[in-house]
Amino acid sequence: MNKLLIMLFALLCVDSYAQHSPGFDAKEARDFIQICNSFTYLDLHDSDDAIIPQEYTRIYTSPAVGMDNLFQVYVNQSKTKAVLNFRGSTDQKSSWLENMYSSLVPAKDTIFKGETAFLYKCADDESAAIHAGYILGLSYCADDVLKQIRNLNKQGIFTIYITGHSQGGALAQMTRAYLYFLPKSKLDPKNAFKVYAFANPMIGNKAFAQEYQRRFADPGYSFLIHNPEDIVPKMPVSYNDSTFWKSNLQTMLFDRENFSFKGSVKEGLLSMMGSNVGKFNNGISTNVQGQLVKLLGDFRMPKYRKESNFMHTSDPILLPPTQYPLELKDSSILQNDSLMRIYKRDANGVFEEKSLYKKDKVLLQHKPYNYYTALLKVYFLADYDRLKDKYFVLRNE
């Protein structure tokens, strides 16, 4: 019955989606995570020629606006389809404040920036709510996004993919929801969109996520791609009906060696927050908004919701975690015969005592290059085997 309903929904949406093939396409995902790597390559190497798929050419890069938000536009060689690529978080204070601005606001409302009003709608359900920071971020680049889509339409391009890594993946989904509800006078209904979001944090509450999933993900036009050891997709800290937030927080912060704290600190933090996580987030957001006003100028947001039940917009496609080589804390142990007799090694020469090794590079699991190599490892093994660098390494460390 559910599959039949999904098929009927897809048929009803055929005019909007006619130019896209529904369903996850590994080649599309590979191309778009390569494009998402553009920003890292430009930062580190001043060129992204080595990572961008040959089929695509960048035709536009927006100015950085608002909280250091920026997007690129790519077109394929035949000029039949385009890609909007949103940049993820940067090292700018405003960019991280955008992530921290995690109160939920109504999915339909108005943001006032000085004398300018940004009217938005991202869902029909009146109980739907969205991440304050990401809708604020979108408000600064929405006009330019629409302008670039119209420019593509003038070239006869109506098949458009929206992608991004991390914060960029959050903005990709938020943009898709926002575009859906725009009137025909602002957006040609012939436009067809498909989303690939990598390593993204959550962008809305359960009501929003369920509507987004029903409208875009279930028909096969929006996908999340995550690494289960990447902590960013577990953000913001949340609770919901199916997964009590305390369990999420404990897994994220305390189960891994990198985030271990004494039991008393752990229990104290959880007890302090408890069921008041929504109130806690709103308190942080009030502080964050004050800092952002100093950076951006005066703006007024919709009233915060008291809840904090964030939820992903669909079940993600999971990629394998990146395996970094084990690195001994003290390599001199290899020259110490006494210690070598004490610490046993397996058939591969790996010490059974894991405390001898440096901690896992957990934060590196989030790197877009590691998402690229993981995707190759799953779907394009021959290409993965040919890679010289199978994981992200900062060469100038």
Task: Write a compact overview of the structure shown.
This protein is of the alpha/beta class. Helix content is 39%, strand content 16%.
Q: What does this protein structure show overall?
A:
Helix 5 (93-100) crosses helix 6 (132-154). This protein is 39% helix and 16% strand. It contains 14 helices and 14 strands. By secondary structure, the chain is of the alpha/beta class. A hairpin with a 2-residue loop joins strand 5 (108-113) and strand 6 (116-121). Strands 1-2-3-8-9-11-14 form a seven-stranded mixed sheet, sandwiched between helices. The protein is globular.
Distance from first to last alpha carbon: 55 Å
Class computed from helices, strands and strand pairing: alpha/beta
Radius of gyration: 22 Å
Encode the helix/strand succession as letters: HHHHEEEHEEEEHEHEEHEHHHEEEHHH
Form type? globular
Biggest sheet, spatial arrangement of strands? 1-2-3-8-9-11-14
Tell me the layout of helices and strands.
Layout: H1 2-12, H2 14-17, H3 26-36, H4 38-45, E1 56-61, E2 71-76, E3 81-86, H5 93-100, E4 104-106, E5 108-113, E6 116-121, E7 129-131, H6 132-154, E8 159-165, H7 167-180, E9 192-198, E10 204-205, H8 206-217, E11 222-226, H9 245-253, H10 263-273, H11 277-296, E12 299-300, E13 310-311, E14 317-318, H12 337-342, H13 368-379, H14 381-386
Parallel strand pairs: 3-8, 8-9, 9-11, 11-14
Antiparallel strand pairs: 1-2, 2-3, 4-7, 5-6, 5-12, 10-13
Helix pairs in contact: 3-13, 5-6, 5-11, 6-7
Any key phrases for this structure?
single chain; 397 residues; alpha/beta; seven-stranded mixed beta sheet; three-stranded antiparallel beta sheet; 14 helices; 14 strands; 39% helix
